Amino acid sequence: MATFRRIASLALCTTALISLSACGTLGIGGKSKQASSTKGATTIAPTNGVNSFLWRATLETLNFLPLDQVDPYGGVIITDWFADPAAPDERLRATAYILDQNLRADALKVSVFKQIRTTSGWNDAPVDADTARKLENAILTRARQLYIATVDNA
């Protein structure tokens, strides 16, 4: 149990660090441009090829899964296998692709993979088609919330 908590804590810290770097907050998130806001102050907007709201929302929504590979410039998030302690003979993995700089439904693609443990090891199993769609909808909803919060604060 302590190992699971340690891994979950590490995944959360990694997610936070990646979120900050993807937004350009640490100065390593790619080139930035200045855009003026309605109140006369300036804001920094990342120009790394993907929508920052979708990126942050994807990391927040998939935070229950351990991260395997993350590419903030290409807009790809690949999680590692995760087995719920309540169902140890079943594990899931997700891959999210952010395909555009615009906050649109077709700018996001989520694929979910499932395996079931049998006597011969882990075998691929079908995933309910609604699972990926529900994850996409949750990510899009969170991205809209992040966008609205940014616009309201500008």
Automatic annotation (TrEMBL):
<dbReference type="Pfam" id="PF12100">
    <property type="entry name" value="DUF3576"/>
</dbReference>
<keyword id="KW-0732">Signal</keyword>
<dbReference type="InterPro" id="IPR021959">
    <property type="entry name" value="DUF3576"/>
</dbReference>
<protein>
    <recommendedName>
        <fullName>DUF3576 domain-containing protein</fullName>
    </recommendedName>
</protein>
<feature type="signal peptide">
    <location>
        <begin position="1"/>
        <end position="24"/>
    </location>
</feature>
